[in-house]
Each structure stands twice: as structure tokens, then as C-alpha cells.
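Re: that chain you flagged

S.,

Sorry for the slow reply, it's been a week of failed gels. I finally had a moment to sit down with the sequence you sent. For the record, here it is as I used it:
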Amino acid sequence: MVSAVASAARRLLVALALASAAAAAVAQDAPPLVSAQWLMQQLGNPRIVVLDIRSAIDGGGVEAYRAGHIPGAVHSDYDKAGWRVTRQGTPFMLPSEAELEKLIGEIGIDEDSHVVVVPAGVHATDFGSAARVYWTFKVAGHRAVSILDGGHAAWIAAAYPVERGHNPPSPKIFTVKFDRSRLAVTADVEAALGGASAARAKVASLGVSRASAAAGAGATLIDARPARFFDGKEKAPAAKAYGHIPGALNLDSAGFYDPKNNRLRPKSELAAIAASVPAGPVVSYCNTGHWAATNWFVLSELLGRKDVKLYDGSMVEWSADASRPIASSRTRWDDLKKALGLGS
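Prediction finished late last night. Pasting the C-alpha cells below so you have them in one place:
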């Protein structure tokens, strides 16, 4: 009898071990973008943490989460929970290692978790929230993370179940293993400018277009903002100057997004759009590192480009020092229109 009980116990332990290994394998093999169908099939996987990040950026937030969310999802407001912090007067920066360990651990995530980031799925800027959170996990050294393709809207469109109320997370211990290879700081941008100075001089003498202005030695700087920001016709309120970092290539992050279907475009289209980016290292930036996260995600995670970094300080940090160079097409007429209340 004892032998039979022991045998049954062993079989149970083996079954549990195999189930755990299978769950880990599924999470490990998950791509950067996962479908609503994939996530529906994984809801019973104890390693999956569904992270709803809806915020004021997408017109939602905790109230939208409480009104209906993916079963089991926990909520962490992208705009309020601490995914971006103010450091030395510069807003929207990457949190410190200690801040990340507290933020991620309190959500109920540890090194064994596979995180599925769920944006609202309503517009390109909303996707940027998910891409920035994804990038933050990667910088923190957490490998198992995906974004729900199409966000919460795709889940609803598939008629999958939702639940109401609030799921309080069970805090865990998360240890950051900082991955510096994904983060660019101001010194990296200055080094890129120094390495590309000769190429920029040649560009200026030839009068070539914005699309070819970043070609040359060193890292390619990718400006993810709309052209009106790049050209200096408009600037973010926190930025101190109009225009862009000299030599940058303007690649508006919204171009990677399909507004009709509210998700990124097919991979073939993404590759075609990104074809203008020269081979070699890349630094993606925008105003505050939000739009730039989409360009980083597409180039690094979907297209497999090596050595792609995100400059989280972006134009707000760069322009805070008046000695740093700025290129701009802004004119006195633009300044006059602003003074008259007719422009930015």
C-alpha cells in the first residue's frame, strides 16, 4: 500500500515538473508580439503575468481597467506608476535600479514571470507606452516579455472574456540585472556626433534630403518625432529649443503603425519603412523617449537589428544644455506666427 502511495506521489511530482517545464518553454519561446488567441490559450499558465498599462495617454487608466480587463490582469498605470521618473530636472527618464526593483516586484513579477504588456490598442502613441514598458523590462534584464498585438481592443474584438474589479498583485522579489547595451545616454549621442562630423559636413555641402542626412560614421541617430518637430516648427513644452540633433534621420514612429487596425504594420512593411536606416549602430530618440520606444522595438525586437539603443533623455535632456548643437529649419516667420498665436 505504501509502495502504491509512493508511486502515485512520484507520478504526481513528475507530472507537475513536466507541466512547469512546459509552461516555462511556452513563455520562453513567445515572440515580442503575441496575439489575443495566444494569450487566451495561456491564461492558465502560472508564469504569465498580464500587465494592463492603460493610462490617461490612451484615455483610460485604473477606472477603465476596473470596468473590464483580461481575466487575471494586474494594472500599472504607465503615466502614474513610476515607469518614467524625473531626474536632475529632466522628466520621463528611466527609473533607477532600486526604483525598478520596487516597481516591478510590487506588481507581482519576478525572474520566472513571463510578462505580457497590454496597452489600450487605440493609437500609435498608446503603442509607444507598451514599447517603452517593454524596453524598460529589457534594460532591467528581464528577458521574458511580450506585447499583446492590438492591445485590449484586440482582446475585446475577439470576444474573449473580461472581468471587472481589481486584482491586487502579490508582491515578489525582483532583482535588476541592468543591460546597458539597450540604453543610450547623452555621452553616447555626443560620441555619435563626433564620429559622424565629417559625414555631416559632406551632407551640408551637398544639400541632401532629410532621409539621407544620418549616413556616415558612428551610430545613426533616429528621430522618431513627426516632421514638424524635426524641422523645428513645433517643440515639446519641456524642450528648450526647436529642431533636432544634427545629422539625425527623421523616421516618424507613427509610420510603423496601422491606424485602421490599431496595431503595428506587417513585418514586411516594417522592413520596407526601416530600409532607409543605414547598417550599423542606431540610437533612437524623440522628445522624451516615448515615440522613440516604438522605433527601438521595431528595429531591435521585430527586425533583429543589432546594437539599437534608446536615448530616454531625448530632446528634452539634449536641449537643456545650450552649448549642445541643434539643427533647425525654423524661420523668423515661424516665430512671428507664434507671437501672434498662429503657430507653435
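What I noticed first: Residues 181-339 form a domain with the Oxidized Rhodanese; domain 1 fold (CATH 3.40.250.10).

Talk soon,
D.
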